[in-house]
Amino acid sequence: INAESWGRTSKMESSSDPLMVSESSGLLEAFIASFSMILVSEIGDKTFFIAAVMAMRHDRVIVLAGALGALGAMTVLSTLLGHVLPNLISRTYTHYAAALLFAVFGIRLLKDAWEMQPNDGVNEELEEVEAELNKKDQTEQGADGKDLEDPTRVSVRKSKLNQVLMQAFTLTFLAEWGDRSQISTIALAAAKDPWGVTLGGFLGHALCTSVAVVGGRMLATKISERTVALCGGILFMIFALHSVYFGP
Description:
Elements: H1 2-42, H2 46-57, H3 60-88, H4 91-115, H5 123-144, H6 153-176, H7 180-191, H8 194-222, H9 225-246
Helix pairs in contact: 1-7, 1-8, 1-9, 2-3, 2-5, 2-6, 2-8, 3-6, 3-7, 3-8, 4-7, 4-9, 7-8
């Protein structure tokens, strides 16, 4: 009897193994897709330069905390939206809609790369962010200039750190809203494992933002926007072909 019961148990375990392997591979696939998508989307993006420029003017830890808070919240929100969509609309429709979206982004990026010069950089995006932050700094200096001689410097410093934290959070969140990476995260979450998409997306954002805070400006002078667009276009086309080939 013991041998028979052991045999039944081993058969049950072996029959459940493929399901466990399938779930773990789905999680890993979603993680890799989300992580790589964020890398090619965020390097040289507006949120990248917001973190880079603010880190040159303020405490890096505070800027990193604010930016990562915004990107983490956006990643969770986008994944939730993508996860809910298949419950409202047929999963087949959302799957092929995601594939179409990836193809559109891929073609657009490849077209941009084709039209760019080999030595094109990301100076326009950097200059735009610097101009916006300069306006904000001038406004704040005009409002806070009288407090420099105030004896309560500690409280003033804490207040300014909180302002920097909120500024980094708000600017990053607003810049990310409706961005290509947010829409792509929604599309990935609609087609793949949401936990893998969330983890991969957040770690991708954390890596890109950390690079931006540490040496974003130096990287911007050496990066080729054409190369970034080309890599991004190829990656999105791979996502589109993979979705079409394997189906929902």
